[in-house]
Design goal:
Blueprint (H helix, E strand, L loop, with lengths): L11 H12 L16 H16 L3 E4 L5 E5 L9 E5 L13 H17 L7 E5 L13 H6 L5 H5 L9 H7 L15 E7 L4 H5 L3 E7 L1 E10 L3 E2 L11 H18 L4 E11 L5 E2 L2 E10 L2 H22 L2 E10 L2 E2 L2 H14 L3 E6 L4 H5 L5 E6 L15 H19 L4
Parallel strand pairs: 3-4, 3-5, 5-15, 6-14
Antiparallel strand pairs: 1-2, 2-4, 6-13, 6-15, 7-11, 7-12, 8-10, 9-11
Helix pairs in contact: 1-3, 1-12, 3-12, 8-9, 10-12
Length: 416
C-alpha cells in the first residue's frame, strides 16, 4: 500500500527536544556523551526511553541481552512486525546523535502515527539494541549478533571490559536482564535511521543517504608479549620490545590497506601498554586492528595478510604474538524492496538523495541476516563521528525521520 501523502510530517521540534534531553544523561567533557553500555548512565537513559514509550502507548518487552522492544499494535494479529531502531549506548567520547537519532527517530515516527490516527496492518516495534558500539565489550553489535544467531548468549555474557567485568554481570547489575529468549521474535522488515558518519552527503549537498550496502569488517585483537626492562640501561640489541613490534605492525596495516585500494580501510584505534611506565619497555601490548571493505574476497585477503605479516614481524624481534578475531561481519547487501521504499519516500518528500555504502557497522547488518533490512542516513558536519564534536542540524534530523516515517508506514501498510 502506498505511503501517506507527502504533506504528512513528523514533529521535528519534538524529535530534537527528545535528542537533547537524552544527551543530558551521561554527558561527556566536551559537549558530547559518555553513556557506555551497561553503565549507570546507560541504565538512566533506558529508563527515560521507557517512560517515553509508555507515554506513547507502546508495550515494552526486554530480552535476555537487555535489548528493548516497544510495540505499537497492528490491526492484523497474525502480521509480523516492522522493526525500526538503533542504539542508545555511546563511545567513551561519543556524540549526541550516533545511534540515538535512530532510536528516537523511530519513536517519533510512532508518535506521529498516533497524532495522525494512522492504523497499520503490521505492528511497529521500536528497538534499542544493547552494546552496539562495542567500546566497552567487544565485539560491536553484540546483542543484535546474538539475536541473529551469530553469537551465543553464553559468549556474550562472558565478554569482559578492560577492568575484567563480565557483560552478564553488568547487565544484571543495572537491572536490565529481560525474560525474552533472544532471537525468538520474527520480523517482517527492519529499518534503521543513522547519521552518515562520513563526509559524502554534506560535501555533495544531499539531504538523504539511501543505504544499499554495508562494508564487511574484521577486528583483530593482537596481544604481543615482550620483556619488561629499563629503557635507559637495557642495550638495544638485548631488548625484547613489544612496543617496537606494535609500531611495525601499525605501519604494515597501513601498507596493506593502501595496497587494497579502492574502497578499503585499515587502522588501529585502541592500544593498552603494560606496565605503561615512561622508563619501562612494555612487557605486553594489546591493540585492535580494524579493517573494512565491501568486497568479501578483499576483506578476507587483508585479514590473512595482516595476520601472517604480524607473525613474521614478531618472530624477527623475539616477541610473542597471539591474535583473536574479536569482531566480524561479512559485507551486507540490503533488501532491494526496502531500499526502493526509502528512495521513493525521499523523492515524494522532495529531498535530494543519493545511494550510499555504509562504512560503519550497524545493528541493521545483523538484522539483515533474519529479515529484509535497510537504512536511512542523514548528513553530519564534516563527516565527524565517534567524537564529542559530532554534529547534525535539526533540519537534517527531521528530514531523515520523515523519510523513515514514510518508509515504515508504507511497509507496515495503512488500514483505512
Amino acid at each position: 500500500m502506498a505511503a501517506p501523502g507527502e504533506n504528512l510530517r513528523i514533529d521535528g521540534s519534538r524529535l530534537w527536544d527528545s535528542i537533547m534531553e537524552m544527551a543530558e544523561i551521561g554527558p561527556g567533557i566536551a559537549g558530547g556523551n559518555n553513556r557506555q553500555t551497561l553503565t549507570d548512565a546507560d541504565a538512566e537513559g533506558r529508563a527515560l526511553f521507557k517512560t517515553w514509550c509508555e507515554a506513547a502507548g507502546l508495550t515494552l518487552g526486554v530480552d535476555r541481552m537487555g535489548t528493548m522492544f516497544a510495540t505499537r499494535a497492528g490491526e492484523d494479529p497474525d502480521a509480523l512486525p516492522v522493526y525500526v531502531g538503533s542504539h542508545l549506548d555511546t563511545q567513551p567520547t561519543g556524540g549526541k546523535y550516533d545511534g540515538v537519532l535512530g532510536v528516537l527517530g523511530a519513536l517519533e515516527a510512532v508518535r506521529t502515527m498516533n497524532d495522525l490516527g494512522i492504523r497499520t496492518k503490521h505492528p511497529v516495534v521500536v528497538v534499542n539494541w544493547t552494546n552496539e558500539e562495542g567500546a566497552r565489550f567487544a565485539p560491536a553489535m553484540l546483542a543484535s549478533g546474538v539475536f541473529a544467531g551469530i553469537h551465543t548468549l553464553d559468549y556474550a555474557y562472558g565478554r569482559t571490559d578492560l577492568e575484567g567485568k563480565r557483560f552478564g554481570d553488568e547487565l544484571a547489575r543495572i537491572g536490565w536482564v529481560g525474560d525474552e529468549e533472544v532471537g525468538a521474535r520474527q520480523m517482517h522488515a527492519y529499518y534503521e535511521l543513522h547519521i552518515e558518519q562520513g563526509p559524502i552527503l554534506e560535501a555533495e549537498g544531499r539531504e538523504i543517504g539511501v543505504v544499499t550496502h554495508c562494508q564487511g569488517l574484521w577486528w583483530l585483537e593482537f596481544t604481543l608479549t615482550g620483556k619488561e626492562a629499563h629503557t635507559g640501561s637495557t642495550p638495544m640489541h638485548l631488548r625484547v620490545n613489544a612496543g617496537l613490534a606494535m609500531a611495525r605492525i601499525f605501519e604494515m596495516v597501513q601498507e596493506v590497506a593502501m595496497a587494497a585500494q579502492p574502497d578499503a580501510v585499515g587502522g588501529v584505534g585502541q592500544v593498552t601498554f603494560s606496565p605503561n611506565s615512561r622508563n619501562v619497555l612494555p612487557g605486553k601490548v594489546v591493540f585492535t586492528v580494524d579493517i573494512r571493505t565491501v568486497d568479501q574476497a578483499k576483506l578476507d585477503g587483508m585479514r590473512d595478510t595482516i595476520e601472517a605479516r604480524a607473525a613474521t614481524i614478531c618472530e624477527e624481534l623475539g616477541v610473542g604474538c597471539a591474535v583473536e578475531r574479536v569482531g566480524h561481519f561479512d559485507p551486507v547487501t540490503f533488501a532491494p524492496e526496502l531500499v526502493a521504499e526509502v528512495r521513493g519516500a525521499a523523492e515524494r518528500l522532495g529531498y535530494s538523495h543519493r545511494d550510499l555504502v555504509s562504512g560503519a557497522g550497524h545493528d541493521a547488518c545483523w538484522a539483515a541476516k533474519v529479515a529484509p533490512a535497510t537504512m536511512v542516513m542523514c548528513p553530519c558536519v564534516d563527516g565527524l563521528s565517534h567524537n564529542e564534536a559530532e554534529e547534525i542540524t535539526p533540519d537534517w534530523a527531521e528530514k531523515g525521520a520523515n523519510v523513515l516515517f514514510h518508509a515504515v508506514v508504507a511497509t507496515a501498510g495503512i488500514v483505512e
